[in-house]
Structures are given as structure tokens and as C-alpha cells.
Amino acid sequence: MNSNNTGRLETVINIKEIIWDLLEQWKAVLITALLVMALVAGAKYAKDMKSYEAAQAEKEAQKQSTASAEEQISAVLEALPESERSTVMTIINQNEWIEKEKEYINNSLLLNTDPTNQRTLVADYYIAAAEDTDSVRDSLLFGYRSHLKDKEVAEALGKVIDPGAETKYIAELISAENSGSSDEATSADAILEIQVVLPDGADPQKVEETLTTLLKEQSPEMSSRICPHRIELISAGETYLYNSGAVNNRTNILYSINNLQNNTKNMQTSLSDGQKAAIESISAVKAAEKTAATAGSEKTDAKDTEDSKPRVSRKYALLGFVLGVMMYALVYLLIVIYKGCITNAGDAEYYTQSRLLGEVYTKEEHKGISALLHSAFVDKIRYKGRLDEEEQIRRLASALEVVCKHEGIEKVSVLGFSEMDETGGKVIKAINDKGIKTAVTDISKEEDGSYLLDVKDVVFMTDRSCKAEDLLELGSLLDDCEVSRTGSIYMGKI
Fold first, then answer.
1. How would you write 147-204 as a 3-class SS string?
2. Is the pTM of this model over 0.85?
């Protein structure tokens, strides 16, 4: 933290030192990450296991239930008087037919185009046969028209017309009714005219290319069965036609749906409570049967996977591990901010606003929980070249000697923020050995600032117990008393 001109405190975080602290606490980080990993992966496993057990229970219930849909419907009907059963089944059948017709008119590609102005591909093919007979010509025309009704043809055209559409809706787009003999050719020659209705987005060129390929691939088989011949495309083009068949079909379906709905409504007005309840029960049975059939077809390929017991998810385990590391880092950062203490030599220099004379690290023995928060291996890397306590004390004493000689200082006041320990005593002795007089003051025991009356030059002796806010306040007090800040020393314990 630092004080700005308004007197507010700002939080300053040394990211590099925070990372070093976390690396030093790697054992605690690892334990936390493993615990969170176990919780996350365990929660996911428990959820999957619960779903698996529910699915197994449902399957077992289905196995134990021997009543088929037909038997359930029969049981519902048998509960009614015989005179009321036919009316119930009539309404059920009408409702089913209404739904089928609605489904067709909603999904049909043919009926969802404008039948009064239908975009259509018209392709004319010339068939030249080796034998000059009407029977050969008629047989070839019939054979090709029959081939156009094959499922494989509808599937191939569906890929270029609408890949998502059902084959049955593609098949009704194809027609070849206007075909006959060629007026300009011999009697054995014929013209096969094929019309393909084009929904929005369909490419007529791709449709024509696919259609031509299908016919030419069929030609060898037709030649072997009927008569050798060749088939060639004469012309193909996109046009707009009035499709009277589609118009009539659409009109009849809408009329049928309307009539059936009105008829059903009229019949329901005279139903007894038992009949209404029976209709609801049978409709529910049929809906369940339809849902089960659909779900069964969708799950056929995944049957083995669904039947297998769930396992611990590696993905969730990794997620839990990463989450644990992030949680530990976040909590540690919040603790550092909340405590507001300096954590490294750089903080001592920053908050005392004085030169760093040196940093001395004392090794301690760590047991229990404390051992989880320290790592000798990381310390060797982090404090490389700074772990020799005697050498660090000698260096800081020499640095202070140079400063004092340069500025003509004979005596310094050492301001400590905790009780002087053995290492601190060594530091004071080393300074005295350089011919510099020292006056040590424990700030924590001073109730007021009277000790500053005889102070001219100060050296801050800081450690991790020093609060940044206290250092800033002390600095302001020193400025008010016109006390010179000679330098700072950081005492660390590792």
C-alpha cells in the first residue's frame, strides 16, 4: 500500500514475489488442489451414478411391466360399457389421422412450395433403341419411370435438393408422366420428360447433373433386360409451372383436417365422463409408445455406452485440480491484502522510501503445518546467493559504512518493529564494528514520538511483521521532524 496526495491507501501487489510464495507453498497448494479435484470429480461421479441408477430402475420397471400398449388400451376400453367403446376409438383414430395429415402438410417439400407457381426443373432425355418396335419403346419408358421411384434415386437427389429432408418428401418432387414417342425419330425412339420440383435453395444444375448420372448408370441394366439402347440429355431448364395435382392435394388435406376437427368437437360434446377419461388414458398410452419407439431408435447405437457404469471423469478431475490451485492462490492473495504487511525486501525499500542496504535471511526448522508452507528446494532457487547469513550481514554493514562516510554520518538510529533477536544483534554488532554508533529503538514499545527528538539519521530494520500502513505513517512523521532516511534492512526468516 502507498499513500497518495489525498491520504488514501492503495494496494500494491508484487506479482513476482506472490508467485514465489505460492511455489514455496507447493505442498499446501498440491493438497488443496487434490481435495478440490476429489470434490469436483466425486460430485460429477455421484450425479452420473444417480442418473445411471435411475435409468437402470426405469429399465427394470419396463421389464417387469408385461402389459403392451394394446393390452393397456384394451383394459381401458373394457372398463367402459360396450356401447361407448366405438365412439371412443373413433375419436382416437380421427385425432391420430388429423395429426398425421398436419405432420405431412407441415413437412412436405412439395406442398410447402407455391403450387400455383412452382419452380420446376424440366429435363428431356432422348432414348434410341436398337429394335424398331413400340413394345421396346414403351418398355424402356416404363422401366425408367419405375427406376425414378426407387429409394436410391430419391436419396441421391435429396443430397443436392435438401440433405435434411426425409426421403419420402423428396420422392414426391419427381414425376415423369409426360413421356412418349418422338415425332421426328423412328417409332422405336422415345422422349422421357422428367420434372423435379425445386424448393428454395435447390440448385437446378446440380439436380440435373445428379439425375443424368442416375439414368446413365441405370442404362446398362435396362439394355440387358429389355433392349440395347442409349439415353442422352436433350435439354434441361428451370421454369415455373402450375401444379394442379399439388393444388388439389393441398386443398383436400386442409378441407379434411377442418372437417375432422369439427366432427371430433361435435362428438366430444356428447361424451360421458368415462369416455373422456378413456380418451385421455388411451392418448397418453399411444404418446408414450411413440416416445419410447423414437427414443429406442435414437439410442440403438449408444446402447452399450448407456448400459455401462459411469466412471470418474478425467476432464472434471483436471478441472477440479486447476480450480483448487486457483482457489488457493486467490485466498492467499486476499490474506496478504487483508494483513497489509510487507512480504519481501522490495516492499521494505518501497514503503520506507529509502535505499535497501541489505537483506538477511535466517533459516528456521519447520514442522507440522508450517512444513507445508516452506520448501528448502524453492528457497535455494529463490534466494540464490543470499542464504549465507554472515556474508549478507557483512555486505549490509559495508554498504551502510559507505553511505555514512559519504554523508558524514557518525551515528544512526536503528528503528526496529519487533523485539531484537540474535540475528538482529549480529547486524548491530557488524555496524558498530565499522565505527558507526547505533541507537536501537523498538517502535512497538514506544507510545508516542518522543524518541524522535534526538534522532537525525535512521535505518529501518523491517521484517514480515511490519505493516505497510505503519511504515508510511512513520515516514510522514520522520519528514515532519526533518529526520533523514539513511536506508533500510530486511530481515527474513525461511
1. HCCCHHHHHHHHHHHCCCCCHHHHHCCEECCCCEECCCCCCCCEEEEEEEECCCCCCH
2. no
